């Protein structure tokens, strides 16, 4: 059933996602979309991806995911696994428990030379670091129908999902630590907080291109899996510690609330939010200098 999570805040992964924002339809699929509507097109798309697998494979372990509940990149993988129905085939293990020095341990470096999380070690022994690489693998081994259910129907919506994911990974992800890491040069923190605002505005525009509850329209997608956990960080930290009136705009808020209504999304939210609250209780934001930095009124912190 549910995968065990060996972590300080024990968590489990129950899946059901898909969402390859870049999947393509054939000409026949396009004709099905025009003639039969979105539902028929999704069914056609799913049939085109059907893989015949031995029944025993459906219960076989995929491997071990090294991750912690608070990790937004790890949350992206856990959410994808829940949506895809693969959670019961993944064991989630806290590397701080599995390795003497956690992700800084030499043994973990053999698993992930970048010394980061998450990392999926497959049952074959192959190590897959990087959250989007892991999610891509999960989409490839998942049931085609589950993948289709989380893939936007139109080419434009799929492109928007891919764009939002790319903006998040390339421009927002590398600077998100300004909200919670340190000690950090004060000017650097202020500059990156301002850039977080700019990138959230970019994502706000992309999320408003297509009507529907989610970032890329009516269908939850890879973009929601990637961005929602980071928005949990923003929603918790930016108003409370940096004085923002709103962490993000109405388009992202609409998608955020849609994810909160999604069972797997809410479970993932609880894990990430619980981790942030544990950081707060442990005095992290005082220790890393966020509190003292924001008291310096010579820099702009609130947007």
Helix segment count? 14
What is the annotated CATH architecture of the largest domain?
3-Layer(aba) Sandwich
For the record, give the distance between the C-alpha atoms at the N and C termini, rounded to a whole number: 44 Å
Spatial extent as radius of gyration? 20 Å
Superfamily (CATH H level) name of the largest domain: Glutaredoxin
Overall pLDDT confidence: 86
Categorize the overall geometry. globular
* Class derived from helix and strand content: mainly alpha
Predict the CATH topology of the largest domain: Glutaredoxin
For the report, how would you describe the main beta sheet?
A: 5 strands, mixed
Strand content: 5-15%
Count of DSSP strands: 5
Which regions are unreliable across 5 or more consecutive residues at pLDDT < 50? Answer: 1-56
Please identify the top-level CATH class of the largest domain.
Answer: Alpha Beta
Order of helices and strands: EHHEHEHHEEHHHHHHHHH
Strand order within the widest sheet?
1-3-2-4-5
Number of domains: 2
Helical coverage, percent range: 40-55%
Would you write up a description of this structure?
The chain is mostly helical and 303 residues long. It folds into two domains: 5-148, Glutaredoxin; 154-294, Up-down Bundle (Glutathione S-transferase Yfyf (Class Pi), Chain A, domain 2), CATH 1.20.1050.10. It contains 14 helices and five strands. The protein has helices at 27-36, 38-48, 72-84, 95-98, 106-111, 131-141, 144-149, 155-172, 186-207, 222-242, 250-261, 263-281, 284-287, 290-294, and strands at 5-6, 63-66, 90-93, 119-122, 127-129. It has a five-stranded mixed β-sheet. The protein starts with a strand and ends in a 9-residue tail after the last helix. Mean pLDDT is 86; it is low at 1-56.
């Amino acid at each position: 059933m549910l995968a065990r999570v060996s972590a300080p805040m024990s968590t489990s992964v129950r899946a059901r996602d898909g969402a390859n924002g870049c999947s393509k339809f054939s000409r026949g699929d396009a004709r099905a979309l025009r003639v039969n509507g979105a539902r028929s097109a999704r069914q056609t798309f799913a049939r085109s991806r059907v893989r015949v697998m031995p029944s025993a494979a459906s219960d076989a372990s995929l491997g071990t995911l090294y991750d912690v509940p608070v990790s937004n990149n790890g949350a992206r993988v856990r959410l994808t696994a829940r949506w895809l129905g693969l959670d019961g085939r993944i064991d989630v293990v806290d590397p701080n428990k599995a390795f003497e020095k956690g992700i800084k341990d030499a043994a973990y470096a053999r698993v992930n030379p970048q010394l980061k999380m998450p990392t999926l070690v497959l049952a074959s022994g192959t190590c897959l670091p990087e959250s989007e690489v892991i999610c891509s693998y999960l989409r490839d081994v998942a049931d085609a129908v589950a993948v289709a259910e989380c893939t936007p129907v139109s080419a434009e919506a799929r492109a928007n999902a891919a764009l939002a994911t790319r903006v998040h990974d390339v421009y927002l992800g590398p600077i998100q630590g300004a909200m919670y890491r340190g000690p950090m040069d004060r000017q650097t923190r202020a500059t990156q907080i301002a850039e977080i605002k700019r990138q959230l505005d970019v994502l706000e525009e992309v999320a408003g291109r297509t009507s529907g509850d989610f970032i890329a329209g009516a269908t939850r997608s890879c973009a929601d899996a990637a961005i929602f956990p980071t928005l949990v960080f923003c929603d918790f930290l930016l108003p409370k510690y940096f004085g923002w009136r709103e962490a993000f705009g109405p388009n992202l808020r609409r998608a955020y609330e849609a994810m909160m209504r999604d069972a797997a999304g809410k479970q993932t939210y609880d894990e990430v939010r619980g981790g942030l609250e544990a950081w707060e209780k442990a005095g992290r934001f005082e220790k890393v200098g966020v509190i003292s930095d924001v008291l310096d009124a010579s820099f702009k912190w609130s947007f």
